[in-house]
Write a sequence for this structure.
């Protein structure tokens, strides 16, 4: 068993709390000392109460799925003897009501564009590597969200 920890910290800065107009700015702290500015999404609470330059939970969710997929893809590709020079994914998550009528990120589309040094894998092999990466991704196993992979070789 593995455990993962994060500390999320928020503090009231002398704002009236009960009027629901308090700042949603907070921070995420990870092992190794990394601190990430975080906030509610401005699309949810508006710019007045959010920090649009900080990471919001919805973006982090999409990024964690993309990152997990990429790490597995790189590992599998290296084992096959292909050299990845660059991997870029402009992933996107869609929030809408789910089957229970609750707002949820119901779909995430991963759009990795991969550039190889040397030989490119055949399209079938490339697609299979992405499928295997999806099957191995711990984060993808942990969610109900539909995940689509639309990958390209650069």
């Amino acid at each position: 068993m593995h455990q993962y920890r994060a500390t999320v910290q928020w503090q009231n800065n002398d704002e009236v709390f009960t009027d629901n107009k308090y700042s949603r700015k907070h921070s995420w702290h990870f092992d190794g000392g990394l601190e990430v500015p975080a906030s509610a999404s401005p699309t949810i609470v508006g710019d007045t109460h959010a920090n649009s330059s900080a990471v919001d939970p919805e973006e982090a969710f999409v990024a964690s799925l993309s990152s997990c997929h990429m790490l597995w893809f790189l590992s599998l590709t290296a084992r096959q003897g292909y050299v990845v020079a660059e991997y870029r994914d402009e992933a996107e998550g869609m929030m809408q009501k789910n089957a229970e009528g609750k707002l949820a990120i119901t779909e995430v589309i991963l759009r990795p564009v991969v550039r190889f040094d040397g030989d490119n894998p055949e399209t079938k092999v490339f697609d299979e590597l992405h499928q295997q990466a999806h099957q191995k991704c711990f984060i993808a196993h942990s969610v109900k969200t539909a995940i689509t992979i639309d990958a390209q070789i650069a």
About this structure: The chain has a mean pLDDT of 95.
